[in-house]
Amino acid sequence: MASHRIESDLGHIPYAVPHIIHPPSTFINQEGSAFDFGELEEAIVLQTVNDTKQPLYTEKPAATLEMFPSWPMRFHHTPRGSSKSGEESTDSGSAVHALSSRGEGSRLELESPVGRKASSSSDHHQMIDQMHHLQIPQQLEVASASNSPRTGISQPQLARPTSEKRRGAGSNSERMLDAKTLRRLAQNREAAKKSRLRKKAYVQQLESSRIRLSQLEQDLQRARSQGFFMGGGGGAGGNISSGAAIFDMEYARWLEDDHKHMTEIRTALQAHLSDGDLRVILDGYITHYDEIFRLKGVAAKSDVFHLITGMWTTPAERCFLWMGGFRPSELVKMLTAQLDPLTEQQVMGIYNLQRSTEQAEGALSQGLEQLQQSLTDTIASGSVNDSMHHMAVALGKLTNLEGFVRQADNLRQQTLHQLHRVLTVRQAARCFLVIGEYYGRLRALSSLWASRPRETFIGDDILCQATTDLQMVQQSSQNHFSNF
Amino acid sequence: MHYHAESYGNYNASTVRQNAAVDPLERVVRLASGSAVVIFSLSTCCMCHAVKRLFCGMGVNPTVYELDLDPRGKELERALMRLLGDGSAVPVVFIGGKLVGAMDRVMASHINGTLVPLLKEAGALWL
């Protein structure tokens, strides 16, 4: 019975190698030990070869169709020896199906040409080799549960040495080998299943991350446009609020753009471009400035203190800070020396600009002073009983700060626009270049100051010593003079 | 700068007739036309203080209406808010009866040099 089965199994071994290797009866025995496809197959093949020299494809081909219903059509084309015995045992069927469900596509590549080859030859040895070609990649495929196709061509090297080994091992009981096979199959199934689940989980994770990323981007966009702080405790976390952090990032990007604009203007001036071209470049630069004022407006809504304390600027700039930015009148004063030659009308224009900015600054400063005074009064006054009420009032007054920063930025923006109006295109281009360079140098000063060499103790001592020396020298020289 | 509280002082027959005008916007316009420079303000507002200081610094003598001190100030405030469209109702500046706007417009017009001619035209500024 068993031998008959083996024989009939052998009938279709070349065409459906891994699946047919296991005679159905042995599946029932689950004595597990390390399974070796090759050993089993070799044993079966040897037995067949020893027992019968019949061509392997005398069996009914139709049975194959029934035995492996899940197999793709290609297999049906190749004539094969088959037996219904495999089908009769559900175990084998399931094992076979399980195997066939893994890596079908690529396996096809291997097996059908080989199958075709086998069908055309009656050489047993050739078939044996081909079996090995198939079984080794099959093993590897099943073990890794991947669908990457492997060529059978590289396998012969692998197959031959192992087949030599295996020829000697054929004496093991078929039952045990089959049990090994069964166990190995089960393990492979599990591995493949786990792999599939892992892949599925990973893909799901990717998808959810993608969705989260797009949501975060949307939130960020909304936060930027509205100046709100989305998610998480209202700026309490860390030293810097979300609105401030966002503004700092945008300001950094603005500075990079500023550098590009300045380079563009510089090149345009040196290249002596036409006024029309220069005007276009200049308008771009003005828009660039408008952009930072717009961003500051947004930031003022979410974190006015960040702007008004100048934490977004460098230390040297902070030294000259007025209401969250540069002082327009100071800028105009600085420019008047740099802007020669000017027509008389332009001189008047610049002079008026300086006066009006000074007046406007004065008015805003006085308004802010009154706000501070009012705030001080509110915080200072109030008993323990209505302290909460006073705090609420104080909070209300603080909201006015945003208005002052906005007006100050408005003043700065208007000043720049007026400069653009009063000056010619070329003069304005030079003017804006000067402004950009000025603030660039101020920022550089901050960096230099921060990185200056500091020999604190020694330095101070030397300084003290030097001062006293100097005094002594002065005194002695005075004495000398008095002698004269 | 002189402060006006409609219900106190300036109480004569003509003002009674004028006070009968119920529509707040009409009242705003009427008040605005009454002087060369008119500022609608709130006594507690710091920005209003700033705009007042601006005009005084330029040597202008504006007429100031403190809406929180006016019994019908609330409706005037609402009318002004509708007029301006957004933000706070005060400060609002009228020069020569014409609306200049809130603080940002006043600032902008001063910087771009249109405020002084406007003041001169309205007779609020000489020289």
TrEMBL record, chain A:
Keywords: Activator, Coiled coil, DNA-binding, Nucleus, Transcription, Transcription regulation. PROSITE patterns: BZIP (PS50217), BZIP_BASIC (PS00036), DOG1 (PS51806). It is found in: Nucleus. Pfam families: bZIP_1, DOG1. Residues 178-222 form the BZIP domain. The keyword Coiled coil applies. One of its GO terms (biological process) is DNA-templated transcription. Residues 144-157 have a biased composition (Polar residues). The keyword Transcription applies. GO terms for cellular component: nucleus. GO terms for molecular function: DNA-binding transcription factor activity; sequence-specific DNA binding. Residues 244-452 form the DOG1 domain. Residues 199-226 form a coiled coil. Belongs to the bZIP family. PANTHER family: TRANSCRIPTION FACTOR TGA9 (PTHR45693:SF9). This is Transcription factor TGA9 isoform X2.
Automatic annotation (TrEMBL), chain B:
GO terms for cellular component: cytoplasm. Keywords: Cytoplasm, Redox-active center. It is found in: Cytoplasm. Pfam families: Glutaredoxin. InterPro entries: GlrX-like_pln_2, Glutaredoxin, Thioredoxin-like_sf. The keyword Transport does not apply. Residues 37-100 form the Glutaredoxin domain. SUPFAM superfamilies: Thioredoxin-like. The keyword Repressor does not apply. Belongs to the glutaredoxin family. CC-type subfamily. This is Glutaredoxin-C5-like. It comes from Olea europaea subsp. europaea. The lineage of its organism: Eukaryota, Viridiplantae, Streptophyta, Embryophyta, Tracheophyta.
